[in-house]
């Protein structure tokens, strides 16, 4: 793993609110430091090179890319925690990932990963690309050194901000360190200088998987000549002879020369299916590597926070680990906060009480704040609990290595953000993940569904995002951690970040989440409760994809439904109505695919006289292959569509 070097006279001692511990490395964009926040969280801070900071075009792109990267979910990436893009020397702070790069593992003593490990890698990297592409970013430099391995899965780093370098390298082609992309892991489009799309990342993913499965680069090493490698990437078939045969079809499809012939990340996720989260019961890494990660965690505990003006003490050169340059979610406060946001694939027009589907819209009688269903003003948020003192790393965290049947199992202290072992986190690992359930009030179902994504973080930070789905509304909220204890679980103060229809939702105030029976969480807020169960990384099933059509009831014109594969919380359904009254267009968010496709209320994009809103709805595939849509509100009858393309 990378060595942690002591600070030199030319290094700052603090950046923003972060005290530096040592230098992790230097790259084309600048220097990367290991640091700690005022609350004791271990982070990585990248300080941009002064000469790049002087380039206005670079600074403009850097600003835009950091803003976009903050919206990426942190499950498979390193989260952006903080940044100052306007400083004389811009910087960005990200979660510290306690794990080696894939390149270090394969080129070291461990060699290629076992087949089950490669499948776990493929699932995690595809999920990361799904999140990255969902906010409009393209990684452009997915390679083994930008893939970090942790006990519970891979993490992708260095995405998005690589594009900021393009702003300078497009005009300065010989500048040192300005090459975006690595020859052995570039796509044909990159080699030819063509337009880069998300499909380019899928090609790079195929090269990374081939390397992980065989220990060899599928188009050869740059040692044999950079131009020769780039020619093979563009013109020759990959060498997959050393790849296990059960993986060749998947990897080969990613390496198709034609971008349109490559699978989308969601196709790979769907094909592989849910993969175990790893850990003691189902390790995905070699046992020796798991043990090394535990030893690394212990060494990091020895790295002291230095007093002002002093270099870090501890076992320098041993505290490895890596950092993501971008990724994560928007902080609600300047220092150290983060959240995992379900990414949106495109902007959605403000909500409206009207939309397509012909027929009067309907308010939800008694519909209320944050999708609560009572229509009353939300109670005032509870005051934040005093922030307790936290030690530099989670006090009492234990590393216990147990040799059993050749497998090392242990609990790793919280070292870095962006993963279930997040650094300095107050959130117990049992709460981290995606949870969903149905809401009740006084034991009576309300018809509302609730979905939470909970990530690591500390008191005062945004640690949860939720979607509240009712018959005629969809509310998206952020939850800031107020307190955490064994008795009370998590206490959150929420803030609505999106409402459909616009203005419909308001925050309920304090929420509580406690561990329930059989691996569940119990949610309570304003007299409502729900038993939440773990949710998979859901995707829209292939059977629903495409365009479906039915004639209008009056026999004039048609109604069309187009369903795309988008992340949860993104507009995956487009509804078009063409008739005597004009043309209406609306979109609806994908909520879940648990047995049937659940989507939120439509949000109007284009309106003509006579258009009215549609409620939340369910889609299912009938026995004859037709698409059936059932509405949750508005008293509309089910509708049946026939596939047209």
TrEMBL record:
Residues 317-327, 356-374 have a biased composition (Gly residues). ATP binds at residue 46. SUPFAM superfamilies: Protein kinase-like (PK-like). InterPro entries: Kinase-like_dom_sf, Prot_kinase_dom, Protein_kinase_ATP_BS, Ser/Thr_kinase_AS. Gene3D superfamilies: Phosphorylase Kinase, domain 1, Transferase(Phosphotransferase) domain 1. Residues 258-280, 301-386 are annotated as: Disordered. Residues 337-347 have a biased composition (Polar residues). The keyword GTP-binding does not apply. The keyword ATP-binding applies. This is Protein kinase domain-containing protein. It comes from Streptomyces olivaceiscleroticus. Residues 18-285 form the Protein kinase domain. SMART domains: S_TKc. It holds the Pfam family Pkinase. Keywords: ATP-binding, Kinase, Nucleotide-binding, Transferase.
